[in-house]
Amino acid sequence: MTDYVDPAMVDAINQTQKATMAPQVVLTGADGQAIHAVAASAALAIQDAVDALRHSTAIATTASGIALTQFLASGDPRYLEALGQAQAMVSEAVSHLGAVGEAASKIVQEFPSG
Question: What's the pTM value of the predicted model, to 2 decimals?
Fold first, then answer.
């Protein structure tokens, strides 16, 4: 075996290394990864808020149905108070989703991206 390496092969390796490992390329790649991580985190926060809204709506619907059933069975108006509380819970979840969406959007837009 010889220790000879074709100069064209050495040149190709050196050019590839410069193209992929130059400081500016590495920084740009890291910036891209960082903004993708921030955007993914923002998307997860929004998904969590949507899930919370979905769960709040399911709980409120169930509570409203039970309260209405109890009111119709007993005539006791205190069960009607639960209807307003259930609606307030859904309204709060909607507001929370809006706040999370606005915050996530602001964070992504203001994140330094190079």
Answer: 0.69
